[in-house]
Write a structure and sequence with these properties.
- Helices cover 76% and strands 3% of the residues.
- The protein is mainly α and 314 residues long.
- The chain has a 3-stranded mixed beta sheet with strand order 2-1-3.
- Helix 2 packs across helix 10, helix 3 packs parallel to helix 8 and helix 9 packs antiparallel against helix 10.
């Protein structure tokens, strides 16, 4: 506990409750998830870069989405694993806490901007296929990706700055496995109602600013697909969007529960579970979502595996 007029210069991450045995089990589970996330998303990035069949806007965006998934899980999971492996609360400096929170929010914001762009890409591919190559040319795709990254990082400067301008005098124990903003606001002795309201509005802007184009795009996509006379044609058209749509449902669903709420300082257990969905489960699932339902990616993986087998035999 801190004095009434002092502010924290370091924080203690409470991590997960439970026995050492439970912590070791959680460590094994999350280490497996993290390893598969790194390998799966790295494989996607590599095949998108080297396979000519995947040289299209959809896979260009997918490669950047995979890079973002690697970043978001790497920002959180290694610290969490360290806390599970060693007993006691984990110490994190103020600078490290600021950096972790900023990178986590910036990468997440970039990901939502990119998911919105991917929805528009699918709309153009399905609803305006004859002009697809003209509209979604390489220059447009590069600018979309650059703007997504720049927007994500610039947008989160003020929220993180405002959070750490508060005085943390109640305690310096964060009831989570990372520097969670909601739990940090709980530690402040300032009145946080105004900043919580501004953070709520900013979260609404980010999530719904990218969700609305996604909903509009998929409304037109579904309408166009239903007009295709053959069942095989409808199935083929829908298969090009199914992976992205699944990713959107999981990603937006988790973050709507976590960030779009007027009261940021809610139950720690709730925040902990939803944070696990965002930082561990979703990055783990995305490689499977984008490969198991995509024939081109499966073919590229199969050919790549054959090529490596031939190299080892020689």
């Amino acid at each position: 506990m801190l004095g009434n007029h002092s502010s924290a210069t370091e924080f203690y991450l409470l991590g997960f409750p439970g026995s050492r045995e439970l912590h070791h089990i959680l460590f094994a589970i999350f280490f497996f998830f993290y390893s598969v996330t790194l390998m799966g998303n790295t494989v996607i990035i590599v095949i998108v870069c080297v396979d000519r069949r995947l040289q299209s806007p959809m896979y260009f965006f997918l490669g950047h989405l995979s890079a973002l998934e690697i970043l978001v899980t790497t920002i959180i999971v290694p610290v969490m694993l360290w806390g599970l492996l060693f007993p006691g609360m984990q110490t994190i400096s103020l600078a490290a806490c600021v950096t972790q929170l900023f990178l986590y929010l910036a990468v997440g914001t970039t990901e939502f901007a990119l998911l919105g762009a991917m929805a528009v890409d699918r709309y153009v591919a399905v609803c305006n296929p004859l002009r697809y190559d003209i509209i979604m040319n390489s220059r447009t795709c590069i600018w979309v990706v650059i703007m997504s990254w720049v927007f994500g990082f610039l947008f989160q400067i003020w929220p993180v700055y405002a959070t750490f301008q508060l005085t943390f005098c109640k305690s310096n124990v964060v009831n989570n496995f990372f520097c969670d903003r909601g739990q940090l606001l709980k530690l402040s002795c300032n009145n946080t109602l105004f900043i919580e309201f501004i953070l709520f509005l900013m979260a609404v802007f980010v999530l719904f600013g990218s969700l609305i184009p996604t909903i509009i795009s998929y409304s037109y996509i579904i309408s166009t697909i239903l007009k295709i006379p053959s069942a095989s044609g409808r199935r083929k058209a829908f298969s090009t969007c199914a992976s992205h749509f699944t990713c959107v449902v999981i990603g937006y669903g988790s973050c709507l529960f976590l960030y779009v709420k007027p009261k940021q300082t809610q139950a720690a257990d709730y925040n902990r579970v939803v944070s696990l969905m965002v930082s561990v489960v979703t990055p783990f699932l995305n490689p499977f979502i984008f490969t198991l339902r995509n024939d081109k990616v499966i073919e590229a993986l199969r050919d790549g595996a054959k090529h490596w087998c031939q190299l080892f035999r020689n």
